[in-house]
Amino acid sequence: MAIALILALAQDPDWRSDNFAGPVPESILKSKSGRIELEAILGSRRLRHAAPVQCVAYSPDGKRIVSAGLDRSVRIWERGTGREIASLVGHEGYVHAAICSPDGTRIYSGGQDDTIRVWDAATGAALASWSTNGSAVSLTISADGKKLAAIGGTFDRLQIRETSNGRVLAEARVSGYLHVLAFRPDGKSILSGGSDGKIRVWSSDDATELAAWEGHVESVYALAFRPDGKRVISAGSDGTIRTWDAETGKELANWSGGDSAIMAVDVSRDGKHVVSDGDGGEIVVRKADSGEAVSRWIAHPKVTSVRFSPDGSEIASTGRDGAVRLWDRATGKARPHSPGGVGGIRSVSVRPDGKALASASSDGTIRVWDVTTRKRGAEFKVDAGAVPSVAFALDGTKLVSASDDGMVRVWDPESGKQLLSWKAHEAGTCAVAVLPDGKRIVSGGADGAIRVWEVETRKELAVWKEHTRPVRSLAVAPDGRFVLSGDDVGVVKMWETQSGRVLQSWREHEKPVNTLAIRGDGKRAVSAGDDFFVVLWNLDKGKRSAKQGGLSDGPAMWAAFSATGEVLWGLERTEIRIWDYQEGEIADSIRCDGGPLSVQICGDLMVVGNADTTVSLYRLR
After folding, report:
1. Residue 320 and residue 458: Cα distance in Å, rounded?
2. Residue 593: is its pLDDT beyond 90?
3. Which of 163, 228, 452, 545 minimizes the number of CB atoms within 10 Å of its CB?
4. Under 8 Å between Cβ of 479 and 436
């Protein structure tokens, strides 16, 4: 049965077109020892990475889009459909830059792993890997495709290479940091922007510094030539966009871009418009001659790069939310297949009968899914920030949510109708849990308080104030006798529900406690933290029982107990692991391509909410 299921997934064209470029990778379908099997992905992965995206580029013919991100991948997308054509995996760290060769046959990427990698743009095959002796954070290529310039070292080294073999032709170093490079259209020089606010001009033959233009008062993060090569556009952390004469270095114009640093600019092929990021995740399109803003719209929580399409009709943007978004340049409206949600799935909850689940995301959207049919049911939104926590009542008739505006809301999960709401915490509600009687809920707030509420009357029954920092996670004992809480500085507390008395207080984490879970018998608990550790607690003895993690794998985003009592935990952007704590070893693991942020286990069903806004369903064997 399991083998048949895997084969069915691999052959399903909808599965492939929405979620994978080709057959589903075996490392994603099945764990190393076969203990975890991927059953379905709910939602579309089109134009999404599993982590923040650093850059975007169009292929020269405009038919494909290339993006690179902190999930260690370079991805190639079909522009018309948003379908992922290939995921280029090979970098062993964050990927900061990716560009296409002028003839469209190659892709060059630079990463935190101190390499520049070369890929076949048609097949995705890895062609070469060149050492940069430091993170490669910016790449630019000459118009004839013969030379590639890169920032390497400790962000202080300009390297000029032959594209045919990677040979270093010239190298120069600066004091401070370099952030961005741009080849002049005629190929004679290269511009760099750095932490000293200067734009430096370098010979593309021997990396000799030819000039330094002064004007920005802080770091220069973005550079772009107008197509004729006579003007240069720059932007930086001083919030200004500046135009320069490319020959003399004279500053010709200075436009205010807002209160925030400007990280990205581009110029349309006809030279008439400039696009940049703006305050609060905006994209701003301006007239290139006057700087007048002609359109602006909210694109991401934070924009990291912007690019005009070769035909000028479209703008591609990337952001901290892991999405690549496509926009109509004239109207600012999202193009078809652009991701519809912002941010990852912060919380998931399975209805006690296992037939439905709810997911809550960073953009305030709550979705209900039918587990059997995989179809989406009700969808509703909190227009007041993220929803960090959502939970079904035990009878499955109500869904409770916490939100950044400090409210607790109660919903009908079938219709999406809001039944009740009230202000629970002034500074934001971070976590919510339902007590077994279904009549009371517990909320944890950014104010450090934990409050117990009677649902129907919205009456506050108790307030517990032992935490001094925001309460990020809550877990209720199966019999309701006690509650566990975890805060922003790594403190875990155990409360007696009836009296509100603190039974235990522990400090094993050095950073926020992302999640807590209690075993079915109420004798063990597990916590996962931003400090990369997962801790097992003996609740009977009131002490730590075991500890796992702490390497360079990344934050432990969640942990949970399987029905057989084993601990499962998820690492941000990488994988899910089974921890045999009695043997003190990792018993099994599976790659999670979407970036696992949240989890709930119901019997042998494991529901994982991902950074790419999808929900993955796994079966535990």
Report:
1. 36
2. no
3. 228
4. yes
337: left (phi over 0), alpha (psi -120 to 50) or beta: left
pLDDT digits (tens, 9 = 90+) for 500-557: 999 999 999 999 999 999 999 999 999 999 999 999 999 999 999 999 987 666 799 9
Query: Which residues neighbour 285 within 8 Å (Cβ) at sequence distance 6 or greater?
Result: 273, 274, 275, 293, 294, 295, 296, 315, 329, 332
DSSP SS3 for 386: coil
Instruction: Compute the distance between CA of residue 445 and CA of residue 59 in angstroms, rounded to an integer.
Output: 47
Q: Cβ atoms within 10 A of the Cβ of 478, count? A: 11
Tell me if 335 sits within 8 A of 323, measured CB to CB: no
Q: How confident is the model at residue 188 (pLDDT cuts 50, 70, 90)?
A: very high
Q: What is the mean pLDDT of residues 268-294?
A: 95
Q: Which 3 state secondary structure label does DSSP give 350?
A: strand
Please give the Cα distance from 149 to 169 (Å, whole number).
10
- At CA 240, angle to CA 234 and CA 243, rounded to 5? 40
Closest listed residue to residue 357, CA positions, set 344, 371, 343: 371
Distance from the Cα of residue 50 to its chain's centroid: 5
Written as one string, the DSSP assignment of 269-328 is TTSSEEEEE-GGGEEEEEETTT--EEEEEE--SSEEEEEE-TTSSEEEEEETTSBEEEEE
Sheet hosting strand 324-328, strand order edge to edge: 303-308, 314-319, 324-328
List the end-to-end C-alpha distance of the chain, in Å, as a whole number. Answer: 12
Sequence length of the chain is 621
What average pLDDT is seen over the chain? Answer: 92
| Residue 220 predicted with pLDDT over 80 | yes
> Cβ contacts of residue 365 below 8 Å, gap of 6+?
341, 379, 380, 381, 387
Selection from 206, 176, 207 nearest residue 191 by Cα: 207
Q: Are strands 209-213 and 585-591 parallel, antiparallel or unpaired?
A: unpaired
Give me 113's structure tokens. 């792993």
What span, in angstroms and rounded, lies between the C-alpha atoms of 177 and 189?
A: 19
Phi first, then psi: give them for residue 268, nearest 5 degrees: -65, 155
